[in-house]
Structure formats: structure tokens, C-alpha cells
Please model this.
Amino acid sequence: MNIKGRLAIERYHMLRHGDRVIVALSGGADSCALLHFLHSLREEYALSLTAVHVNHMIRGQEAERDAFFAEEFCRRLGVTFRLYRRDVPRMAAERGLGLEECGRAVRYEILAQEAERCGGRIATAHTLSDSVETVLFHIIRGCSVAGLRGIPPVRGNIIRPLILCERADIECYCAANGITYVTDSTNYDTDYTRNRIRLALLPLMREINPSVSDAIGRLSDCAAQDEAYLQAKAEEMADAFLSTGDAGVLSPENSALTGRALVIICEKKGGISPEYRHVAAMKHCLREGKGCVNLPCDMQFTVKNGSVIFEKIRKKTSHTEEWSAWRCEIAAGEIITPGGQKIILQVTDKNKYDNIRKIFENVFQNSLDYDKIKEASFRGRQNGDTFRPYGRGCRKSLKKLFNERRVPVELRAYLPLLDCGGEIAWIDGFGVAEGFEVTENTTSVLYIRTEGNEPERVR
Model:
């Protein structure tokens, strides 16, 4: 571990002579090894060390034991010790976070405050094993290239001197130096996803490749290099758009860069971080040359007449008003409603449609003659709306139609509909309107399906 720790410090320029270092000390093997290792370098680098321990008030007497052990460990080394107690269960409930996520946030907040107070760096005991578990965690959740980078050796003023060490290296170092440590009982609680990865998934992977940690470490290094290059190019694309307003620089053909650039633009224009679904919808609009996407924090992305617009939309006083004001031009791909529901649009020729309909008869209900609706827009319900249900030969107000079908009042404002020149061509759950159905003369067919977060739709 000593050699790997020195290598990490030198390779990633973690320490300078005379640094003040705030060490995150849990009392476990990794953090005790880290503090001991940095303590061994204090004269060489003229380091000033302070250890910080946070009691999350989750494990009762066991947590008190850990705090006492950490303080005694620092006393024996002659290192300044600071203890913080935070009621993480209460804070997690207030913040709407899980215990693990909230505990991590609280620790970093305290470490940052300590570092700011003394103008120092923060050292955490993350290892290569931790980074590997993080990569697997990201893959399971579904990540981009950025998620394959694992835990960065350096992030801002945070350094991780043990990032090249595996857990076995830590155990050997502790044994060789007579370092005792405590074990957090929650490390074996398989209710936590990371614990299941460490205790169940990784052992299976090591049966296939005993050097799986090194292999994933190489993957992370490659991903970090690729991501840095792509991100730099995306920054150039985003800056070109922001400085010129030229929509042409957001090339829909260059999907990897365009997606990243859209995220950067959203962050710079509105201070928001769009989700994957938002980015996918924005890229669809760029490819189609039209459409709009409602983004978090009342931001809206619109493509129209060759222009791309990011703008703040008027904050609505209620979700119903937001739906009532919402309008989005039709475009093949995905459209996101104000509530996050997906409207998925597929355009196909009549012959393919006929073959599909032979298998799935209910496809007809949500299929429209595309030639008749190319200038249509999706929107929410408005007062006075009427609809001509296919096959019934009559026109009815939406109020009467919804009453007939016993659609709950609280749901009625949230059903997306397709407006074609003031005529409603389709309603989610009710299907196609008279006059917009697929006929023998149809050449192109639009198929609509919806999925997502709105209240259960009428069927």
C-alpha cells in the first residue's frame, strides 16, 4: 500500500509541501490506514493533519464506540481530532433522501467547512475496490461514459491517496503496522445496494476473472480519457451556440457531442441538469427540425423554423394551468408532457401498417393518417373542446365524453390530445377522431403510444 499510495500522490499531484489536510476518519480499516500513511509523510511534506469523525446517530452504542476509537487512534498518533454529531435519520426525512445518500452529503458538508476554515485539502480513504463497486453500481442503474470513470483520484480540493489500492492491500498494511480498527455492522447489511455488489456480485466476477478490479480500473482510466475529450468538444459546441445562436452547430448527426452540449447549455442557460429522457427528446426535435420539450425549473427547449430556443416559460400557478397552456408541435420521436409523461410517435408507410394491424387489431385506435396532421400540435384540454369519436357519427364536448366514460375529474386535465387546425384528431385513451383515421388512400401512418408518470389513463 505504501508504494501504491506514493504513486497515486505523485501521479495525480495530490500533495504540496506545507499542505493542511483534513482526513475523513470513520475508524474503519481504510480510513485508519489513510491517516497512518499520511502521518508517516508529515515530515517529508511538512503536513498539518486534522482528523474529522462524523457520528450519524444511526447505530446507537456502536456509533459511540467508533467515535471513541477514532479519538483514541488520533491521540496515539498526535493528530488533531474533531467530532461531529448529526441526526442523519431526521435530516434524511427532511431532505427526502435515503440514509446512505444523506449521510454521505452530510459528511462532505462538514469536511468542506473544516477545509474552508483552515484553507486545507480533504483526504478520503476511497480505494480501487470502492471505485470498482461504484462503476458496477452506475452500470446497474444505467449510465453514460461518465459513469464508467469511477471515483476520481482528485476532485477539486478532495484527494484520494489510496485510490490505486485494493482492499487486500489495506488489510496487509494494517497488519504490518499493527493498526487496529473497528468494523461498521452496516457494511454487511444487504439492504444497501453497494453491499450486495461487494458481497455477492464481485465474488462471482472474480471467479471469471481474478483480476477483475484491475480490469475495471483500466476501463475507468479509458472512460475518463474519452469523457474528458468528448466533454471538451461539447463545451466548444455549446459555447459556439451560446455566443452565436446558430442552431447549425448543434449537429443532430453527432449525437454524442450534441447530447453533452445540450446538457451544458441547459446548465448555463437555466442552471438545470436535464435527465436522460429530456436530452433524448431534445435530440429528436433537432433531428426532426421542430418540436419542444418542457425541462425542469420552467425551462423550455423549442426547435422551430430552423431556430433553437432555450427560454424560461411563465411559472404556472397550478399543474392544471400548466397543462392548459402547454403546446408542442408534432415530431417523430418522443415528446415529454408537463408531468413527465412520454408521447412516443412512429411514422411508417401504409403497407407496413397493414401487416402490423393483422397481428395487433387495437393498433388502429391510435393510428392516424399522417398526411392530414403534419402541422398538428399536442396540447392539454381547454374550455369548449369537442371531439368526434371514430365510428360514432357525432360530435361531443369533452365534458360529456368524459362523463360517459366516467373519467375521474382529477384526471381530465392531464390527458394529452392532438390539435389539428382547431380540430381534435386524437385523445389519449379515446383514440382517433372521425376524419383522421387510416383509409385505403392513406400513404403514411402515424402511430401514437403513451407511457409514463401521469395518473392512470382511461382505456
Q: What stands out?
A: The first helix runs from residue 2 to 11. The chain has three domains: 2-223, 245-315, 327-459. The CA atoms of residues 429 and 458 lie 5 Å apart.
